[in-house]
Amino acid sequence: MDRRRIFMKTLFAAAALLMAFTMARTAAAQGQGRGQGGAGGGVQNQQIGGQIDTGGSGAGGVVIDAAGVLRLRSVRDPRLGAQRLAEAHANLPAELQQPSLRRKVSLNRLEAALGARHANGLFATDEMKYLAGLQRIEYVMLYPETGDVVIAGQAEGFVQTPSGRVIGMRSGRPVLELQDLAVAMRAFPPSGPPTRRIGVSIDPTPQGLTNLQQFLAQVGSRATPRDTPRLVEGMRQSLGKQTVTISGIDPRTHFAQVLTEADYRMKLIGIGLEVPPARIRSYISRANPATIAANALLRWYFVPHYDSVRVSVDELAMRLEGDGVRLVGKDEVVTDAGDRVGVAITDRAGQAFVLEFTKMYPQLAANEPVFAQLRNLVDLAVAAAFMQKHDYFGKAGWSAELLLDEQQYPTQLFHVPAKVETAVNAIWRGNRLMTPIGGGVHINATKAVLPENVQQDNEGEVRDAHDEVALDHLAPGEWWWD
Question: Are the C-beta atoms of 96 and 127 separated by less than 8 Å?
């Protein structure tokens, strides 16, 4: 094999790893109603045709324009100022601001309270929008005798950051959002089949991959490290914009925006364009291009991951235990026609990266809000799948009519993520050029609650937590308590 062929094989083997990395979110501009996007932080939607103002924050780290093209927000949140915290303290009830190890929220009572406000022409309160400050779902519990479906977990008072994220006043961890819960429940409704998979994928087009091969063939053995800017720009132009695909949920929701940003930020960490606030070595710092198969296209995916889903013997309560999210890898090759085919490739650098990313996920989520938001979405999806599987709706006599109806409770408030511009990180190892990678998020919530993945509550701890909840003290209109 001559020098030119060796160089071209090496260059393509690395360059074919290229993917696009500029995700985004839409933030509907304050007061502009459905479908109006902007680069601002929080969404403060006004009442639309008698519908409820959902409020809620955007994904925070990415933006999306009206044409559906996504890009990274270049400005990070500054530290929360004393004035912003003081305003949050002044506006929230004192009891809501107190940290709680196990705050309880009755979902059916919350919906009833929301409906009562709606009937009087009032918007949802911040307590409703942010589920009384819940930051994780630890328990899902059913009380057939009172018709209550209750979720419980850690909670605290909350404040909105300048970029629009809503986080705990003390911990800085994002809170759960009612609009995301509504999206999860629509994926697993009281009647109808469950959603097979919720996910996002960002992919080059077959034509883009073909164009990339043609560009690399033109480069030949003339390229050197001095040509890196030209190579990077050429590869970016060859691939063009890439396609964002949202599956299982409406792409116009906050749920979809968070999935997209989390996927994007994971890729940036993998290719060495973002330094994470956790000890995670990038893939590109580990990889040896000599061991990567020609035409390789590496793919990484977030999937649900719990130490256990523990269910009481009577199936009236479930507990989620663990970190909720795991990163996994999948390897493919690219054919001359631009098609992608799965292959059995052992990539040690990729394996090491996904294992370390998963191990350090709790630390990452504690310091980078979007990864905590992703974990919240997985919790919500698994909780909704569990409620559907065990017919909590029917047993509680709760139809969830308002939350399941887009006309009564709108969640489709964002521009659709459609295309991304290509961003490239190029690193030379000797005469070998590396430019990675791909990714995605797949939430198969029904798999998490299959019998083989569920543990019985043999010690009775989950049942005890269920029985400790008292509902007879709740006043009319009251839907959360500690």
Answer: yes
Q: What is the CA radius of gyration of the chain?
A: 24
Confidence of residue 336 (pLDDT cuts 50, 70, 90): very low
- The residue written with tokens 């999206």 in the block is 183
Q: Residue holding tokens 């394996």?
A: 351
Pairing of strands 419-420, 340-342: unpaired
Distance of CA 372 to the CA centre of its chain: 8
Asked whether 51 and 406 are in contact (CB, 8 A), the reply is no
Q: How far is CA 139 from CA 26, 150, 310, 312, 451, in A?
A: 31, 8, 9, 11, 18
| Burial of residue 11 (number of CB atoms within 10 Å: 0-12, 13-18, 19+) | buried
**Residue 13, pLDDT score:** 34
Q: How far apart are CA 402 and CA 52, in angstroms?
A: 10
Q: Pull the structure tokens for residue 15.
A: 């360059």
Q: How far is CA 15 from CA 7, 238, 343, in A?
A: 12, 12, 18
Q: Which helix (H) or strand (E) holds 257?
A: helix 254-270
pLDDT tens readout for residues 337-365: 444 444 455 678 888 999 999 999 999 99
Dig out the tokens for 436 from the structure: 């990675």
Each residue's pLDDT tens digit, 256-269? 999 988 988 888 89
Minimal CA–CA distance to 54: which of 114, 107, 9, 10? 114
The Cα–Cα gap between 480 and 103 comes to 7
- CA pair distance 448, 388, nearest whole angstrom: 13
d(C-alpha 177, C-alpha 179), whole Å: 5
Residues in the chain: 482
State how far the Cα of 34 lies from the Cα of 52, in Å rounded to an integer. Answer: 12
pTM: 0.84
